[in-house]
């Protein structure tokens, strides 16, 4: 299942994927995850036994749902790369419409991707709105 997905080599939203021979298993909050990547502050991207992808916040010990599977997650990240980011000085209405369009595209790949405020993509969208990404 994990072997079939082509992983990006570049860093996207501070996430870098591991090489396949570096994948490893960790237990986090009593659940096992296959670690396939991480960010620049030691958080991890883990895949659970059902194939769902989670962002594992190692400092605060939180798990954030990221996507229904690794392929959908990679596709969502590639949408972010290709997405027409609004200029920093764009009017709020333009930013809001642009972000809404991006969110709709993310949801086409996984309708639960932004469910609740504590999902990975909800946090990313919030950071976009606030001008951090």
Features:
133 residues; alpha+beta; 6 strands; 24% strand
Summed up:
By secondary structure, this protein is of the alpha+beta class. It contains three helices and six strands, in the order E-E-E-E-E-E-H-H-H. The protein has helices at 70-82, 92-109, 120-129; strands at residues 15-17, 24-28, 31-39, 44-47, 53-57, 62-67.
Measured by DSSP, the beta-strand proportion falls in 15-25%
Binned, the helix content reads 25-40%
The tally of strands reads: 6
Structural class: alpha+beta
The backbone outline, from C-alpha atoms, is globular
Overall pLDDT: 91
Low-confidence stretches: none
Major sheet summary line: 6 strands, antiparallel
Secondary-structure element order, N to C: EEEEEEHHH
How many DSSP helices? 3
First and last CA, distance: 31 Å
What is the CA-atom radius of gyration, in angstroms? 15 Å
Descriptive report:
The protein is an alpha+beta fold. It is built from three helices and six strands. It has helices at 70-82, 92-109, 120-129; strands at 15-17, 24-28, 31-39, 44-47, 53-57, 62-67. Strands 1, 2, 3, 4, 5 and 6 form a six-stranded antiparallel sheet that branches. The model has no long low-confidence stretch (mean pLDDT 91).
How would you summarize the topology of this molecule?
Elements: E1 15-17, E2 24-28, E3 31-39, E4 44-47, E5 53-57, E6 62-67, H1 70-82, H2 92-109, H3 120-129
Antiparallel strand pairs: 1-3, 2-3, 3-4, 4-5, 5-6
């Amino acid at each position: 299942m994990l072997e079939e997905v082509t992983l990006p080599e570049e860093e996207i939203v501070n996430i870098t994927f591991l090489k396949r021979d570096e994948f490893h298993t960790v237990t986090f909050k009593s659940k096992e995850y296959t670690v396939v990547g991480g960010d620049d502050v030691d958080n991890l991207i883990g895949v659970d036994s059902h194939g769902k992808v989670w962002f594992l916040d190692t400092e605060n010990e939180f798990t954030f749902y990221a996507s229904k599977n690794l392929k959908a997650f990679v596709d969502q990240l590639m949408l972010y790369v290709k997405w027409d980011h609004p200029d920093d000085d764009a009017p709020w209405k333009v930013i809001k419409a642009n972000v809404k369009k991006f969110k709709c595209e993310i949801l086409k790949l996984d309708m639960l991707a932004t469910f609740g405020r504590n999902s990975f993509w909800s946090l990313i969208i919030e950071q976009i709105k606030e001008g951090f990404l």
